[in-house]
Sigma-E factor regulatory protein RseB
Amino acid sequence: MRKILVGVVTLVSLMMPLQASAEDSVSSAEALLHQMDEASRGLSYELSYILIKKNSIEPLRYRHTFEDGETYAHLVYLSGPPREVIQRGSEVSYFEPGLDPFTINSNKMVAPLPPIMKSDIEELAQFYDFISMGRAREAGVACDVVRIAPKDGARYSYLIWIDTRSKLVMRADLLDRDGEPLEQYRAVSYVVNPKVGDVLRSLKTVELPAVVKLPPQPQAELSWHANWLPQGFESVSRNRHRLMMTERPVESKMYSDGLFSFSIYVSSADSFTVREQLVRQGRRTLHSYLLKDKEVTVVGDIPPATARRVAESVAFLSGKANAAGETTP
């Protein structure tokens, strides 16, 4: 009997350090992500990296500084036609070939940067596990590796390499649910230096395109709702419009969890509508589903199985249209 009790006590004593170690790993990973967030928002730095997708490699350069409560940033595409994005405080200007340059009121670039750099870590912690994966070397420097894994398994995950000194992201792999990479951000070189801020301060005097004054868009009341969404996804916009080519009316909603986003489109079926279609290209999934006389399409950065479940959960409201009503598990 005494031997059995001794064995039980020994087993418990062995398990306790393992549990503590796992908790320490989670807290350490979350702390690293907070440090990364502070560094990416507060430092003056220049980062050259490549964005690797299945059929393409794109080189880019990103410069950033923070001064007097304002962000100044400049992203340049280093191959192909000249393209760049400039952020000056709460205004972002876009320069694209074939389009007139324009500026919008925003505090965030729509550009190929690792999304984790501008995400709310506290908010993400509700729906993702942060797991320390040890150390590795990337871009010539030692890095702490952190996995960002969804708690519900209904979306993609990230593997992040964070420079041990600067706390900047040196690499970010977007992984599907089988752990296969869908795309990679990989730093080639970087520098943290106040002189980068000196260069970006010149943006204060640069003449940029006038801010586009968009008319206020009322949040349309729609005739349907989604009965199921992955945990943490919330509606960020909704509208009703007509397709440019066919003039067919479409209702849409966009959802985001702060790291990924997707949209639902609902329109009347026509002779070109197929009963069901599923296409995935890299991180982007398109799932189209015929529901009675309506075509429901889900497009966004979510796995095919998740897109299918969202599409098949769409239900139409009786009587007056009502945009509220999504329920999450």
Observations:
- The first strand starts at residue 45 and ends at 53.
- The longest helix spans residues 2-42.
